[in-house]
Design brief:
- This protein is of the alpha+beta class.
- The protein has eight helices and twelve strands.
- It has a five-stranded mixed β-sheet with strand order 6-3-10-9-12, with helices on both faces. The chain has a three-stranded antiparallel β-sheet with strand order 5-4-11. It has a two-stranded antiparallel sheet with strand order 1-2.
- A hairpin with a 5-residue loop joins strand 1 and strand 2.
Length: 251
């Protein structure tokens, strides 16, 4: 059964203790499949991700495993990703906690959906197609409730985070906003908790979380989230789809 501690905690007394506001190290994960949940292990080798250069040009492919392994020098292959920020019609944002069996950033809190377009049928998958596929898989949102026209492609973020030193990230992350009242039935292999957070409670709520934020979510939170959240009604005016930002993930 899905645990919804986030929802219960949101409406309880807010604690202002400062903690876990950045990408703190997670517990090390094994390099082999030993100790990795079966579905997660299968995806490591089955999912073929898109390698890109620093201008987001497609340069080749690699498995999900190879795209997230941290090399001896701390480097990680640069690949394409997306992050979806989901809002209901009231403007509340869905916040989720990654399942403990996730290979990368287990038990971290983050935005609605963070994943990768794949190489399918001998061609790169479109970003919004990939976003709808993963929202359906991770959050159980029916495909017919996700009109592609409702997604706003805001910008791209190039970031690198070494994670736990075994599994990390190096991505050009396509940032998508999606606002609609949708049916949510999270996949417990992907998500352990979720809730919708009102904008006026978000800043007080974040310090009460019982785990760290993912690095990509933390960067967006610090640098752009308030601007975009305040302007859900005119996101197209703020969109910079041709721009690739480099933000610092401050501790």
């Amino acid at each position: 059964m899905l645990v919804r501690n986030l929802s219960r905690r949101l409406w309880s007394t807010v604690r202002y203790e400062k903690r876990f506001l950045a990408s703190d190290p997670a517990k090390p994960q094994p390099e082999s499949n030993e100790g990795v949940e079966q579905n997660q292990a299968e995806a490591l080798d089955k999912d073929i991700c898109l390698l890109v250069d620093e201008k987001d040009n497609f340069t080749g492919t690699a498995t999900k495993r190879d795209c997230h392994k941290v090399a001896a020098d701390g480097s990680v292959l640069l690949h394409r990703a997306f992050s979806v920020f989901l809002f209901n019609k009231r403007g509340d944002m869905l916040l989720q906690r990654r399942a403990s069996q996730k290979v990368t950033y287990p038990d971290y809190y983050t935005n609605a959906c963070c994943s990768h377009p794949l190489y399918i049928d001998d061609k790169p998958e479109e970003i919004i197609t990939a976003a709808r596929r993963r929202l359906n898989f991770e959050l159980g949102i029916p495909l017919d409730q996700m009109d592609p026209e409702l997604f706003t492609f805001l910008t791209r973020v190039h970031y690198h985070d070494p994670g736990d030193g075994v599994w990390g990230e190096h991505e050009i992350d396509h940032i998508l906003f999606f606002q609609s009242d949708v049916k949510v039935k999270p996949n417990p292999n992907e998500i352990s908790e979720y809730c919708y957070v009102p904008k006026n409670e978000f800043n007080a709520f974040i310090p009460t979380l019982e785990g760290p934020l993912t690095p990509w979510f933390n960067m967006i939170r610090r640098h752009r989230l308030k601007l975009w959240w305040d302007n859900l009604h005119r996101l197209n005016e703020l969109a910079e789809p041709d721009k690739i930002n480099k933000f610092l993930n401050e501790k």
